[in-house]
Specification:
The protein is mostly helical. Strands 1-2 form a two-stranded antiparallel ribbon.
Length: about 450
């Protein structure tokens, strides 16, 4: 057990604070996870069969299926993003606010939240964070309030649909919850959390929001090709409709996402060939002065652009923790936790409260993805005994904790680590302590409000 805890700690250190060994080998989220599993295998703590079980899973938890769904949706989202349409919408919002900073704060909060619902919180962070930084540089706006509005909105609204966050996918896929069933339960807690979140953000940043700003011509962003953008948005909409109907059609979610990812790949390859024939630049080619700021390469290959922007480092990270949690299960630790929680739950309130609070703080110690992987194994363990209503309370409380908990500390989710790294590269420093101070004021109230709303839905 000591070896398992040690490797868990090693992966988290490599994720939060990447480092080098021998001045050449980078140890980060991806390589750290691979090294940890290799160490466990070499030391005899796990074997090939356990690794296979950790990845293939069982009748309840199928890690490979979760991964397929996440990366399919990620490709669809990123492919749509590289057309330039999300950039275009963001800058239209800037003009729509008409120089009113308070209105801009509200608009960006809503836009980040909606974008998170229809893509994912990770895509929002990767797309909007550089844009907000650019606004601050050229429109003389204090970007700190906008960055927090974007981040908190993305991680709150990402619990609306279960494909919005890989942690949602893990929970739902493991317990066989349908797309519509999930949305029926989570829409109200998400709405309540989003409203409380905004009110508290507005209070916390009441003195630091830029009240008036000027828009320069330089902030006009253009879509690469409107046919490409319209087709991508239409296909994305059809995919979401298909997901809503998946229960009725009795088609597995991963089949739907795999099909549409394939369609998007064909679309991207065709348009890449078109751009190559026409000698066109990327969707952002008219932003030559901004490429250095946004780190955008001048490429014509839309497919390759999308592939490179997918957060591939999540793959070994998640697989590594699936193996480690499988090992914890084999030595009986998962069963001990399952029995402990079951013995302390006597009602819907206690199931929501206990699971929610424990998973909330656990997410901010070991990150929300390994926390969710661990709890999904707890839920399907034979020692986890609850009524159907209590089980639902625990499951959806876990979803809330894994999403909202990401707004408590930067280490609570991979989205937070990506967000901080983007800002560090841009030279904008937001320390772990500064973030925690904001999270401490806002997030507990949002979390409790969401749990209360969940109780109202399930009671």
């Amino acid at each position: 057990m000591i070896a398992l805890f040690a490797t868990t700690f090693f992966i988290l250190i490599a994720t939060i604070k990447p480092f080098k060994i021998y001045k050449k080998i980078n140890i980060n989220m991806a390589t750290g996870s691979l090294l940890a599993v290799a160490f466990l295998l070499a030391g005899g703590f796990v074997d090939g069969e356990l690794i296979k079980q950790g990845i293939i899973g069982n009748e309840f938890i199928r890690p490979w299926e979760i991964i397929v769904i996440f990366f399919n949706v990620a490709y669809v989202s990123v492919s749509t993003d590289v057309t330039g349409v999300f950039d275009y919408l963001a800058y239209k919002i800037v003009h729509l606010a008409k120089g009113n900073g308070l209105r801009l704060f509200l608009f960006f909060y809503i836009f980040a939240g909606l974008l998170s619902i229809f893509t994912s919180n990770d895509i929002v962070i990767l797309t909007l964070t550089p844009i907000i930084f650019y606004l601050g540089k050229h429109a003389k706006i204090n970007v700190i309030p906008l960055l927090f509005a974007e981040f908190f909105a993305a991680n709150t609204l990402s619990m609306f649909l279960y494909i919005d966050n890989p942690t949602n996918i893990m929970v739902v896929n493991s317990l066989g919850i349908g797309f519509l069933e999930y949305a029926r339960v989570m829409w109200f807690p998400t709405l309540v959390a989003a409203v409380v979140n905004f009110i508290l953000l507005r209070i916390v940043f009441r003195t630091s929001i830029t009240k008036v700003y000027k828009i320069k011509k330089l902030t006009d962003f253009h879509v690469r090709n409107w046919i490409d953008a319209f087709l991508s948005l239409t296909l994305m909409l059809i995919m979401f409709v298909s997901l809503v109907l998946s229960d009725t059609l009795q088609i597995p979610i991963w089949h739907i996402t795999l099909f549409f990812a394939g369609v998007f790949i064909v679309e991207d390859v065709c348009f890449s060939f078109y751009y190559w024939k026409r000698g066109r630049g990327i969707s952002l080619a008219q932003r030559d002065k901004r490429k250095v700021i946004l780190n955008i390469p001048d490429e014509k290959n839309e497919f390759w652009m999308a592939v490179k922007r997918i957060p591939w480092s999540i793959l070994p990270f998640v697989l590594g923790f699936f193996v480690i949690v499988q090992a914890f299960g084999d030595i009986g630790f998962v069963g001990i936790v399952a029995q402990f929680i079951s013995s302390h739950v006597s009602s819907l309130v206690t199931s929501i409260g206990l699971t929610g609070v424990v998973s909330f703080f656990m997410a901010n110690v070991i990150n929300n993805q390994p926390m969710t992987i661990f709890f999904t194994h707890v839920f399907v363990n034979e020692s986890f005994v609850m009524t159907t209503q209590q089980l639902k309370g625990s499951v959806y409380a876990l979803v809330i904790a894994s999403n909202v908990g990401a707004n408590f500390t930067i280490v609570g989710a991979l989205a937070g680590l990506m967000w901080k790294r983007i800002l560090d590269v841009k030279g904008l420093k937001i320390s772990y302590i500064d973030f925690f101070k904001k999270g401490l004021i806002i997030t507990p109230f949002v979390f409790i409000s969401a749990l209360a709303a969940l109780y109202v839905v399930l009671m």
